[in-house]
Amino acid sequence: MRVNFTVNGRQQEADDVWEGESLLYVLRERMGLPGSKNACEQGECGSCTVRLDGVPVCSCLVAAGQVQDREVVTVEGLADYAKHREDSHPGGACGSVCGGTSLQEARQWQARPADRVTDGQTGEGGELSPIQQAFIDAGAVQCGFCTPGLLVAADELLERNASPSDADIREALSGNLCRCTGYEKILDAVRLAAARQEETV
Amino acid sequence: MAGTKTTTGAPTEVTQKHNKGGIGESTLRPDGTLKVTGEFAYSSDMWHEDMLWGQTLRSTVAHAEIVSIDTVEALKTPGVYAVLTYDDLPAEMKNYGLEIQDTPVLAHGKVRHHGEPVALVAADHPETARRAAAKIVVEYKELPVITDEASATAPDAVLVHEGRTDEYIEHVPHPNIVHNQPIIRGNAEEAAKKADFIVKGEYTFGMQDQAFLGPESGLAVPAEDGGVDLYVATQWLHSDLGQIAPVLGLPEEKVRMTLSGVGGAFGGREDISMQIHACLLALRTGKPVKIVYNRFESFFGHVHRHPAKLYYEHGATKDGKLTHMKCRIVLDGGAYASASPAVVGNASSLSVGPYVIDDVDIEAIALYSNNPPCGAMRGFGAVQACFAYEAQMDKLADKVGMDRVEFRQLNAMSQGTLLPTGQPVDSPAPVAEILRRVKARPMPPERQWESSEGADVRALPGGLSNTTHGEGVVRGVGYAVGIKNVGFSEGFDDYSTAKVRMEVINGEPVATVHTAMAEVGQGGITVHAQIARTELGVQQVTINPADTQVGSAGSTSASRQTYVTGGAVKNSCELVREKVLEIGRRKFGSYHPAWATAELLLEGGKVVTDGGETLADLAELLEGETVEVEAEWRHRPTVAFDKKTGQGNGHVQYSFAAHRAVVEVDTELGLVKVIELATAQDVGKALNPLSVVGQIQGGTTQGLGVAVMEEIIVDPKTAKVRNPSFTDYLIPTILDTPTIPVDVLELADPNAPYGLRGMGEAPTLSSTPAVLAAIRNATGLELNRTPVRPEHLTGT
């Protein structure tokens, strides 16, 4: 079958999709977007978390056909998504209007230049969202396999709750497994992103 | 679509520029930006134009003769390019293995455990490959299963491996025992007479899974020269290479391996998984083949931590001094040897723990059985022993009537103490001090779950299941401490290789580091860049991808990589520095007498004297020059343990951590909430403090997992795995994991580079027994097995 949907603001068309394919498979193997991860493919680990019309979902549990005419944001589009949100609604939380990119905006989307330079350290030169930068700065990344899903989930948390308590953070991220960090530095990262977000308001 | 390039996801070099950022600084990961943008390519992200997908058919029974395999229907499936069985293996060599080559690439006439690879399929879509594999008909004739020591060593026991010719068969008491290691020192029998109190205990340790998140995966690309290019996630490229090439019938230089992004390891990638299978399919079809396990298959695709039975006897005098220890540790190695012999060596030689006991009688064995194969996992034999000896310490302290921490401190080893192997501990061993530190920490507040709006269920046992608002909840506190060896022991030639280059690029001195070290998330590449900055005085360092074009780095395991490959990078940097200074003397030596007389350093892009005087700019000195060194580096040699007495200087270095666990237990439902896991650890020198703390917290959490939730359940009647999924095998979530305050000590080991101590495993040891001790403290139950499940607490 053919599936038309919007990914990170860009209209996409996937052909020859087998009915049993997941959104995760289509993103990774057909769209060239392997950032969403395949740690369990059974909805338990959260490593494949994406926004589907603004709602965080495990893309391994979404059948590809379900995303027809809908909008998906993956970790690859997170920086642009956060920037767009900040531009239109400074200060973070913005309710339902943040639920993705309109089709009109999507048509104006342009790929980032391929030679985009990052120095591999602080992200200077690249554009990172606050939560991405905070994960690097706080040491929340080790092997990094859980990181994309956690970033999407944590960004969504900060979108609806600009200053979450530790219990709020734990609850919001409880669907994302990490095997390396013991989660302490992930908590640090979310606190750091929230604090930086407050400073800029 | 992924574009016009033929391969995507091949690893690239990473470059990092820093003003400071030498050793001791918390510099950030060079791969951090790639990892937070989703651009970092893991082994499962590899893609090649025209590639096929490989699928493994695995045995549905644990122990059986294979009567027949029918692949006709599978081969007929449209989209299928190849189906391979044992009969298709191309070389004389058809087995592999870390120490003993006892593992068939594909089952030959017999399967020895549930999930053993029997056949392979390559197809143009992963689902096609899966469906084709399901059409392969294998007829099994089931055999009786060996599942424990009694069934393994019964007089009429079926042999898991007949006709063993490995080096261990000479001394083992039974062919279903992979290896046994006795350690005898002093006279435990005599010393027991001095004991006022004797404590005996029998302990059970469940089978833990590494549960790294990035599944086993990779891409094999056939090459024009008849060889193959293999991109995989592993812990040791060269060890894989030595096992892969012979079964492909290729010389090692025709199997070119590159490390892809690794999504965690924890010991589970020491053994081969899909490497050989992908190469076989690629060479057979002439097409690139990608294999990616799903989580279900991953549980069968790697070895686990050995489950164990441990029998201990300790004695103590009434003033609290330990008199003797006897123990017997039975590790279940499962169907294939994997790392079992070395795990036996660790379990036996570290069975006393970080205590002074002169009279010991020890034996550790590993069984062959039809349970899932077990091998390396973080802590490697020392974890199981620590669980048991720390339970014993609490029981003894109670009998003597001493505080449990004071009892440990009274018997704690220190620098100079002899291990049961007779080897002196020749660097700081601050065992009493790390215990003091965790004990001195303020306690988390009582009734921490109370808030102004009533009970916050998220902070209570049962969490969001809303099972209690504090009724029936009891707090407990427990302590534990452990000792882990660092590096490969028992006479292994444990070396690493580093290639370091220095040159001028765009007017700036730049260092490039190339090793075969597997970066599995631990941050080894961060540290390599730091070492290069410290030793060579540059800001910019490029880390090349790890591959087999450079010499072996040894394994990313045994807490050894910062020590050994870090040591190799330091050594190669020093050799590069000597060459740079030679060039300087040649070019500028006549300008200043200090070139000949002073101690010279490379700092801030300059050659300076130890007095701080600048002699030359590196950019100027290196103009038109490239300095490159590839060199091997070794730590102090070790020797094998004596087969009968276990004596010998078998270890390189030790690592110590202590934990204090505070738990709250819902005694009515048997639910446990760990409130805090405070820890203190000596790391010798923290090369990157941020990463050190991250390792300690991560290791602590894996210990927590096997205390209260993680266990692979194997049916004792059929030896089949019952819970191969993250739905049924639970690892700690962020809600299960408490605050983990970390106290890092830095007491230098004079024998190690920068005084550092390998530190990745020690926190996994003491975390488990500390949590168990806290649960015992809360409930008054004996709890001699881990993990603890609700029914163990409620007795239902």
Structural account:
The complex is a heterodimer of chains A (201) and B (796). Chain A is of the alpha+beta class. Chain A folds into two domains: 73 residues, Beta-grasp domain (Ubiquitin-like (UB roll), Roll); 96 residues, [2Fe-2S]-binding domain (DNA polymerase, domain 1, Orthogonal Bundle), CATH 1.10.150.120. Helices cover 35% and strands 10% of the residues of chain A. Chain A has a five-stranded mixed sheet with strand order 2-1-5-3-4, with helices on both faces. Chain B is α+β, with helices and mostly antiparallel strands and 796 residues long. In chain B, 25% of the residues lie in helices and 26% in strands. Chain B is built from 19 helices and 36 strands. Chain B has a seven-stranded mixed sheet with strand order 6-10-4-17-14-15-16, with helices on both faces. A six-stranded mixed sheet of chain B has the order 12-21-20-19-13-36. The radius of gyration of chain B is 27 Å and the shape is globular. The N and C termini of chain B lie far apart (56 Å). The N terminus of chain B is likely disordered. Classes of the chains: A alpha+beta (201), B alpha+beta (796).
